[in-house]
């Protein structure tokens, strides 16, 4: 029986809010056994870019990234957000190591080809290195992954954090019994986005298609669900979308293969 491993992905609204982030990090540290934290920080990047006079454009929940925005996200995700989370985990006695995809070549990608939309410097993942992550994890280290990847030719690329979480989960599912938890500021996937308590307990692919078609699911929930289904179809044992203060797997929305 493979050993259990938990991957928690924390979204931008929680990263942005010190009290909520602290609560999430307390919860993360309380999880026993092997674990990985993946963070976003999209809202922080939008705010800092705006202060620098750079406007943000999102298409289908993903950021269009020109060379100036790439500089901003590199600083914000790889520096500000990642290093603060690592320091907070160290303060709680968790031996965390912050990684972008370029560090130890852990996530390789290529620049997304231009189709209907030119996303600019956005990376589509080719592979995540489960072996190197396993080496770190088995040495007692907790990886903290930022939403940046690289192309192997010196170019950093912006990659949605939900994708980083799914690709990391898939790579680690070859060795571990992986639970992937997407946590954010809502209680789960909502049947009515205006009603915070309208959590859909369980979603199949057919439900997802219907929820997109009727507009119930939109924006940042699109990459989250696309990645959630990708993960559950590729060997990840459990995928859950839930509130950042309810990461024990007993709340929120469960993704069904
Ligand atoms: N049906 C839905 N249920 C919950 N959230 C939804 C739904 N449809 C769209 N959303 C939006 O998706 C957002 C989550 O996406 P995003 O902001 O990218 O989160 P994260 O930073 O956690 O990845 C929610 O804050 C909400 O506004
Ligand atoms: C290409 C792309 O969309 N990259 C994302 C990466 C950060 C992210 O996903 O952050 P959240 O989890 O907070 O949404 C972005 O720049 O917004």
TrEMBL record:
Keywords: Amino-acid biosynthesis, Arginine biosynthesis, ATP-binding, Cytoplasm, Kinase, Nucleotide-binding, Transferase. Gene3D superfamilies: Acetylglutamate kinase-like. One of its GO terms (molecular function) is ATP binding. It catalyses: N-acetyl-L-glutamate + ATP = N-acetyl-L-glutamyl 5-phosphate + ADP. It is found in: Cytoplasm. Residues 5-241 form the Aspartate/glutamate/uridylate kinase domain. Its EC number is 2.7.2.8. Its main location: cytoplasm. One of its GO terms (cellular component) is cytoplasm. InterPro entries: AceGlu_kinase-like_sf, AcgluKinase_fam, ArgB, Asp/Glu/Uridylate_kinase. Substrate binds at residues 41-42, 63, 158. Pathway: Amino-acid biosynthesis; L-arginine biosynthesis; N(2)-acetyl-L-ornithine from L-glutamate: step 2/4. One of its GO terms (biological process) is L-arginine biosynthetic process via ornithine. NCBIfam families: argB. Catalyzes the ATP-dependent phosphorylation of N-acetyl-L-glutamate. HAMAP family: ArgB. Belongs to the acetylglutamate kinase family. ArgB subfamily. This is Acetylglutamate kinase. It comes from Marseilla massiliensis. The gene is argB.
């Amino acid at each position: 029986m493979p050993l259990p491993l938990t991957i928690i992905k924390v979204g931008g609204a929680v990263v942005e809010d010190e009290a909520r982030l602290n609560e999430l990090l307390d919860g993360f540290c309380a999880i026993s056994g092997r674990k990985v934290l993946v963070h976003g920080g999209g809202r922080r990047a939008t705010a800092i870019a705006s202060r620098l006079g750079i406007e943000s454009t999102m298409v289908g929940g993903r950021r269009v990234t020109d060379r100036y925005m790439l500089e901003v996200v590199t600083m914000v995700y790889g520096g500000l957000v990642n290093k603060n989370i690592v320091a907070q985990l160290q303060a709680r006695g968790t031996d965390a190591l912050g990684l972008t995809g370029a560090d130890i070549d852990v996530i390789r990608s290529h620049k997304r080809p231009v189709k209907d939309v030119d996303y600019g410097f956005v990376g589509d993942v080719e592979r995540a290195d489960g072996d190197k992550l396993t080496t770190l994890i088995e040495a007692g280290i907790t990886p903290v992954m930022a939403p940046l990847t690289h192309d192997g030719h010196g170019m950093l690329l912006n990659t949605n954090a939900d994708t980083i979480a799914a690709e990391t989960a898939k790579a680690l599912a070859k060795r571990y019994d992986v639970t992937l938890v997407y946590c954010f500021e809502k209680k789960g996937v909502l049947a009515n986005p205006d009603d915070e308590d309208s959590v859909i307990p369980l979603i199949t692919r057919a439900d997802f298609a219907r929820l997109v078609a009727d507009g119930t699911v939109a924006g940042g929930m699109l990459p989250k669900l696309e990645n959630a289904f990708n993960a559950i179809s590729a060997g990840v044992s459990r995928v859950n979308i839930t509130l950042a203060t309810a990461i024990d797997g007993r709340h929120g929305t469960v993704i069904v293969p």
